[in-house]
Every structure is written in C-alpha cells, then in structure tokens.
Design brief:
The complex is a heterodimer of chains A (200) and B (156).
Chain A (H helix, E strand, L loop, with lengths): L1 H30 L4 H34 L2 H8 L7 H10 L8 H10 L4 H14 L1 H11 L1 H25 L30
Chain B lengths: L1 H17 L1 H35 L2 H8 L4 H13 L4 H13 L4 H13 L5 H8 L1 H26 L1
Helix pairs in contact in B: 1-2, 2-7, 4-6, 5-6, 6-8, 7-8
The chains are: A mainly alpha (200), B mainly alpha (156).
C-alpha cells in the first residue's frame, strides 16, 4: 500500500513542482540574461494564464447557471440514451457555435452529463467541439484554403462519432465523476414538476 | 469568445433577477468545480510554457520537411503534444506550407492538434475519469492519423 500512497502523493505534487520549475526558470533568466529559454517559458506561461483566466471563469459561471436552471428532463430528452442518433445533429450544432480551446468544453460536457446526456453523446460532443467550431474554421479557410477545411471537416465527422461510440463501449457504465460533491440543497436543484422558468 | 462573455453576463443578470438564491448556488457550484481542477490547471499552464518554448517555426520546419513516414509521424506527435490556439496554429500551418511542408504532414499536424491533447490530459482525467480521458485521446490520435491520410489522398 506504500507504493500506492506515494503514487497519489506524486500526482498531487507534480502540478506544483511543474509550476515551480517554470517560476525557477523564469527567475534564472532574470538573474542571468543570457538564459533566454527561461524568459520564453515565463512569457508563454503568462500568455497561457491570461487565456485561461479569460475563458474559464465565464465557462464556470455558465455551467453553474446551467446546473441550477436547466431541468434534467430536457437534456435527457434531446441528448440522453433514448434520443438515439437524433442527438448527434444537436451535439454538432451546440459545438459549432462555441468558441475557445477544448479545455473550455470540459466543464460544459460535464454539465451536460450531469443532466442526463448519455456517455456516448458526451464524447461525441467533445469530438465535435474539438474539430468543428466555426471561429476555428474561418481561420483555417483563410490560411489553408477551403479545400483543406472541407476535406478535414467531412472526414473528421465520422471519425469523432466513431471515437465517441468506442469510448462509450470501452468504458462501460461511465458516469460523470461526482464533483463537486452534490452540494445543492434539494430545494434548489431543478425539479421536473416545477417549471424551469420562474415568472418574472 | 466575446459573445460568449456577453451571453453569460446576460444570463447571469436574468438569473439574478429571477432568483437570487438559486443564482448564488449556481455560482458556488461553478467556483467549487474550478477549485477542484486548479492543480490540473497549473500543470497544464506549466506544461504549455515549457513545451511551446521548446518549439519554434524553424525547428518544426526541419522536423516536418521532406517526404515519407517520419515527418507524418512527427506531425501527429507534435500536434498531439502541443496546445496552440487556432489563431496561432493556422497561420503557423500556412507558413509551414509555403515553406514546402507537404499536405499530408500539415493535415496530420492540424487534425492531431485539434483532436488530441496530451497536456490537457490531466485536466480531462479530472473531469471525465482517467480511463475515459485516456481512451478518448488514444482513439482520437488514431482517428487523426486516418483522417490525415485520407485528406492527403483527397487533396492531391
């Protein structure tokens, strides 16, 4: 059991060690200006922090509101197991109108899963998000041409659907991790009986 | 990204007007989620800082240039590991193409960049469990290889 424990410890330490390494490299480059790698690392990390800080707070507010307002039944109906393949166009539509990096889609996908979106559809959504965002396509067409974009989109479409189906098969009985541990008081979690919109 | 922020602000406002208590519960939910993934987030930022600083266009060119299997695999590998926003990645890909990198290699780089995220894997595991995150990335890498091969056949 000792090994297992140290494994967990390694995992908890790793992020902070990596963050510390970045700080260390950056400090070294400050003290010793010839060391330009450290300066680049610091600059890239700072850019990344800016990007994350610009996206994730918005995402988490949205997911929080989604959690307390959207009734489970509506998501279940359109994206649940019973929806079958009819869910796929909805998933693609949902994914294409969004923007930003894939890690911004993780909380959204988890939010959907918590509301009864089936595992297969969660993974198809992630695939659609990663390949088909419209803002991304405009850039791609501009720099690589529409033939490239069109070929990629048409070929990726069956590919990520297939990936979603396979992940669903390979991880049977997948359920969204219970986190944060359901903290909503029953009175606040949306019920099926009560209307989703409170009259103003 | 801006319209998403505007949309969120509007939704937040509407939610506050409708039910302040429920809005607060939602925000607390979101904030807890954010705190839970914070370590994975730090790891991602550090990994991006370290990896992207090691890559530069000239290095990529030497890696991707020429024909054969090696540049293709390099494209897949670099795409899988890198986390580059689209507005940087596509101009970079355009630059690589004008410097003679083949369509197959570019397709490999772009598809695997979009579909596979090694540096976001810790974060993805936190959200969806390690097994599912790992499988999704492994299968997406294979899918990216197939898509890129098919693209190179279609486009040439």
């Amino acid at each position: 059991m000792r090994g297992e424990k140290s494994g967990i410890r390694f995992k908890t330490v790793l992020p902070w060690a990596a963050g510390g390494a970045v700080l260390l490299l950056w400090t070294a480059s400050r003290l010793w200006p010839v060391f330009s790698f450290g300066e680049r690392v610091g600059r890239t990390s700072l850019e990344m922090i800016r990007e994350v800080a610009g996206i994730l707070p918005v995402m988490f507010i949205l997911v929080g509101l989604f959690e307390v307002w959207v009734p489970r039944k509506s998501i279940e109906r359109f994206l649940g197991r019973e929806a079958g393949w009819k869910a796929v166009p909805w998933l693609i539509l949902l994914a294409t109108v969004q923007a930003g990096p894939l890690y911004g889609a993780f909380p959204v996908a988890l939010g959907l899963a918590r509301k009864g979106c089936s595992p297969r559809n969660v993974f198809i959504y992630l695939g659609a998000f990663s390949t088909l965002k419209i803002p991304l396509l405009t850039f791609e067409v501009g720099f690589l041409g529409w033939q490239f974009s069109l070929a990629r989109v048409l070929l990726s479409l069956p590919a990520f659907i297939f990936v979603g189906v396979l992940v669903d098969r390979l991880v049977p009985g997948w359920t969204p991790p219970e986190f944060p541990a359901s903290s909503l008081s029953p009175a606040l979690s949306p019920k099926i009986e009560q209307p989703s919109k409170v009259s103003r | 990204m801006i319209y998403l922020a505007v949309f969120t602000a509007a939704a937040l406002l509407a939610s506050i007007i409708a039910d302040r208590r429920r809005t607060w519960a939602g925000i607390v939910f979101g904030a807890r989620m954010l705190v839970k993934i914070l370590p994975a987030l730090v790891l991602m930022v550090a990994a991006v800082g370290l990896l992207l600083s090691a890559l530069n266009p000239r290095f990529l060119e030497s890696l991707f240039g020429g024909g054969g299997v090696v540049p293709f695999l390099a494209g897949l590998a670099v795409g899988a590991v890198a986390l580059i926003p689209g507005f940087i990645a596509f101009p970079l890909a355009g630059l690589l193409r004008s410097n003679g990198v083949s369509t197959a290699v570019l397709a490999a780089f772009v598809t695997s960049l979009l579909m596979v995220g090694v540096v976001t894997l810790p974060l993805e595991s936190r959200f969806f469990g390690q097994k599912a995150a790992l499988w999704r990335n492994v299968l997406s890498l294979l899918a990216a290889a197939v898509v890129a091969l098919a693209m190179s056949l279609v486009l040439t």
